[in-house]
Design goal:
This protein is mainly β. The protein contains one helix and seven strands, in the order H-E-E-E-E-E-E-E. The protein has a domain of 86 residues: Sandwich (Immunoglobulin-like), CATH 2.60.40.
Length: 139
């Protein structure tokens, strides 16, 4: 059975890779770690987004933030210390990977870690809308 896609309309050209990214994000969607996304619009029309991810217990060395292929991928990997003896262990050392798809033109500006929160700042500069006339050549 073939899958019908919203991107299969004949007037949507070049969205194949976008559809693949959306599929990949949908498959990796679990609830850990929790996150917030805030949107701020500056006076000049520039949009800023703050992605805050709850990563309590992770150090900066155990986290990796990568901007690749119009997405941000955040990975966390903690090492399990076998030298410690727990009477009760309610906080597991675990790994995670969380991805956020970015629109064209968005710029990842900064990432900070403090008080158990990883905050990634993303900016979408206001772009001037342009139109240009395409010359029609005769063959």
């Amino acid at each position: 059975m073939t899958r019908i896609s919203v991107f299969s309309a004949p007037f949507l050209l070049g969205f194949d890779s976008f559809e693949e990214r959306v599929d990949r994000l949908a498959k990796s969607a679990d609830g850990y770690p929790p996150y917030n996304i805030e949107r701020h619009v500056e006076a000049d029309g520039t949009e800023r987004f703050l992605v805050s991810i709850a990563v309590a217990g992770f150090s900066a060395q155990e986290l990796d933030v990568t901007a690749e292929d119009n997405q941000i991928v955040v990975r966390g990997k903690q090492k399990d210390d076998s030298g410690r003896q727990f009477l009760h262990r309610g906080i597991a050392a675990r790994q995670f990977q969380r991805a956020f798809l970015l629109a064209d033109g968005m710029i990842v500006k900064d990432a900070t870690l403090g008080h158990g929160m990883l905050v990634i700042e993303i900016e979408r500069p206001k772009l001037a809308k342009t139109a240009r006339r395409i010359e029609i050549r005769s063959l």
